[in-house]
Design a protein that fits this description.
Keywords: Membrane, Transmembrane, Transmembrane helix. This is Copper chaperone NosL. This protein is an alpha+beta fold. The chain has one domain. The chain is built from five helices and five strands; from the N terminus they run αβββαααββα. The longest helix has 31 residues. The chain is elongated.
């Protein structure tokens, strides 16, 4: 009978991934920075799994002039879901290590990849709506101008440069995705034993 047990190193890596995903609940996931001549020290906003921190109230005040919606934690349904989703995937990594089968490694990897893709699409759509659905009665209107922050990297928005990139939690998610994909590939290529 064919055995589909995981390598010991794979099981250890799965446990590490589970612990890392648990940690990601309690650290910032994403960072958005704004720089402009009138704010040489910059303005920052940090998105966590369950809250927003940083200078987002100042950003709200500035965005009012160009008709952008204000940012409020209660507007993000993701904050109600994301901590539990990360906890679920941490548990799934532990479960795959405990059950010690390729099947559960593949299940954990596949579901986490789908989750990460959905997470990025959702974040992009939030940024798109935030930057395009502007108040037509705003004090400053630039015809044809939208203010969507970049998903990743930097972008000039009037006299501001906006930077967007993963913070610790986002880095953990990217790292876990890479590790799970690598583990699944290695286990798939591993010679079968009987």
């Amino acid at each position: 009978m064919e055995k589909k047990l995981l390598k010991k190193l794979t099981r250890i890596a799965l446990v590490i991934c589970g612990v890392a995903l648990g940690v990601s609940i309690f650290v910032p996931m994403w960072s958005i920075y704004l720089q402009a001549p009138q704010y040489p020290e910059g303005l920052s906003m940090f998105l966590w799994s369950h809250k927003i921190t940083g200078d987002y109230q100042i950003i709200n005040g500035l965005n009012h002039y160009i008709g952008m919606k204000t940012i409020h934690e209660e507007d993000f349904y993701e904050f109600k879901i994301l901590p539990y989703a990360l906890g679920f995937f941490a548990f799934l990594c532990f479960l795959a290590a405990f059950l010690n089968t390729k099947k559960w490694l593949y299940i954990a990897t596949g579901l986490f990849m789908i989750f990460c893709l959905a997470f990025m699409v959702d974040f992009y759509m939030w940024e798109y709506n935030y930057g395009h659905n502007l108040d037509p009665h705003a004090a400053i209107i630039v015809p044809g101008m939208s203010y969507q922050p970049p998903l990743l990297g930097s972008k000039q928005l009037l006299n501001f440069v906006a930077y967007s990139y993963p913070n610790i939690g986002g880095g953990i998610m990217i790292g876990v995705a890479a590790i799970l994909a690598t583990l699944a590939f290695i286990e798939f290529k591993k010679p079968k034993t009987v």
